Amino acid sequence: MNSILKKTYQMFNFFRLFLVVAVFSISGCQNETDRSSLKRILDRGYVAVGTLYGPNSYYLGAEGPAGFEYELAKKYAESLGVELKIMPSYSLDELFPRLDSGEVDFLAAGLNVTPNRLTQYDFAPSYDSVSQKLVFKQGNVRPRALKDLTGNFMVTANSSHVENLQQLKLENEDLAWQESSEFDSEELLLKVLSGEIDYTVVDSHVLAINRRYYPDVSIGFTIKEPAPLAWVVSKESDDSILGSLIEFFGEVHHDGTLLTLDDKYYGHVEKFNYVDTQAFLAAIDNTLPTYQTLFEKYSDGLDWKLLAAISYQESHWNPKARSHTGVRGMMMLTLPTAKQMGVKSRLDPEQSIAGGAKYFKNLIDRIPDRIPFPDRMWFALASYNVGFGHVNDARIITQRQGGDADRWVDVKSRLPLLKQKKYYKTVKYGYARGDEPVHYVENIRRYYHTLTYFDEKIRNKPVTNNIEQEEVGELTN
After folding, report:
1. Catalytic residue numbers?
2. 0.90 exceeded by the pTM?
3. Is the Cα torsion angle 175, 178, 181, 186 positive or negative in sign?
4. What is the CA radius of gyration of the chain?
5. What is the CATH number of the domain that holds 220?
């Protein structure tokens, strides 16, 4: 998705200055009315943003509000010096009326820019693009074109998926589908898996996340090529809001904020391996219960699920694991590291987990204090794999090339350069297989997110989180 973001910025930057000048010129000539305006937002001290519940937009995680759209909206509020008042909805049927009524200033919910919507609303600059995928259940006959859709086909009402299907029906008169206001695309995925329906349509970024939990959701074909996502503004709003959004997206494209958020939420799910995902889900059911109490016991400030994810990447939770390099056990410790951490037997699961946890926490402590989480954690994980010195070398190369050495998304693109003599001969620790820690971190992130998802399900806390009514719409700091 990063390449799409870069292309989007190149196109956007071409006309950004013109739009800013034009919009602010127009808004300067208008009288203040009761419509939403930048002045009203600044005067009242908060911006009201409409969004949808879900892992891509807004949800309550273990550490509070999260979601790509939420974090980006929070950045916008901070850029204005006001607070964010998030107004989440359960469906598109609830979402757009909030904008129409003026209850929210704009919508930030991963919404496609479509021809129909363009006639009714204004859009901020696009910040990403997603394609639409027709999906079915693994094991059933794969549909490869519209003519192959012979079963029950359902999509979310009032979605961009419906609009696309209506256009396709003009040339495919036999195309038929059902529309549901009750279920969103993620809920329809589960209906595909349960056999209640045969097909649905899902945006590519939503599918990428959900296949980590439900690998039997398979792609039939791309039903619509990549189209832009953008925040939605009412045509009744003062043009100053649109002008401020144009300026904001210019800044977050330029300063790397968008790339960082994209990496945080989607960087670890861009590649999908069906066999590995199935094996991990089976291990969660069959092997993890044997060792979960040990991961919890020795987490000591860490999330036990992260510790378990590291161990699965290292040994697949096999206490007798051994590699050709001589590392052994649940956490695959070297002999010198084991001795340093007080581990007498690397093959003892409890000693290995305790030693691995202690070593990982030591690595976190070595990362400069100015680097915040989660980047701090990704640097420590890369160090666990390839060594702290090599990670520092990659940070030096990043800085030399004008990147941000304190940002994981910048450094991970330079780590593979440690395989090239042109680069590794200029740094202290020399050659390293720098692509390995990148894959290592991405794998652990995938395992960690999957464990988090299922742990929340066990605790009756779905990913979208049932937020108490009194919390909805409160100011978020």
Report:
1. 314
2. no
3. negative
4. 24
5. 3.40.190.10
